């Protein structure tokens, strides 16, 4: 028995640690839909870390409940608990301070050029939504100027593709308990493998 423990003990311990990490801390998730384009694409496979401290602009996985059904969504944290979040003609202001959203630059530029008609050539509904939009980021009623007060213990989550994303603008803020973890790494497709910053 001692010989077995000496030979196989470290391997068994390592295997146990790997399995526990995989089950409870490093969880694989898949992007479903286009709400995080172009940062993340539909079908991207990611690693979510359940123990990460959530900060502004992190990309997170959250449980969204609608009509009694819960599904996991991938969104970006825009508003932290207690924040006042405002948009005016695509300019974000948080607690009275203007904040740059560099991750939106590509799509905002394309929106200014042709209202994303070429980008959305794969989906007629997306083209219609973009054609009707007065700005890249509007509220659920299409207003380009809106303000949200994020309640304590809640987070305001938006998708990077604001035209097509269903997020806190429609479903409301997310409780801390609804946030499963932060996306840290993309492992598929192999051409885009790497850390998510």
UniProtKB/TrEMBL annotation:
Topology term for the membrane: Single-pass type II membrane protein
Pfam families: Peptidase_S26 (PF10502)
GO molecular function: serine-type endopeptidase activity; signal peptidase activity
Sequence ranges assigned to domain Peptidase S26 in this UniProt record: 6-188
Chief subcellular location: membrane
One record GO biological process: signal peptide processing
Active site per the UniProt annotation: 35, 75
Catalytic activity: Cleavage of hydrophobic, N-terminal signal or leader sequences from secreted and periplasmic proteins
Keyword Transmembrane helix: yes
Key words of the record: Hydrolase, Membrane, Protease, Transmembrane, Transmembrane helix
EC top class named in words: hydrolase
Transmembrane segments: 12-29
Location of the protein in the cell: Cell membrane; Membrane
Enzyme Commission number(s): 3.4.21.89
GO cellular component: plasma membrane
UniProt keyword annotation of Hydrolase present: yes
InterPro entries: LexA/Signal_pep-like_sf, Pept_S26A_signal_pept_1, Pept_S26A_signal_pept_1_Lys-AS, Pept_S26A_signal_pept_1_Ser-AS, Peptidase_S26
Source superkingdom: Bacteria
PANTHER family attached to this UniProt entry: CHLOROPLAST PROCESSING PEPTIDASE, SIGNAL PEPTIDASE I
Family indicated by similarity: Belongs to the peptidase S26 family.
Protein's name in the database: Signal peptidase I
Organism: Streptococcus chenjunshii
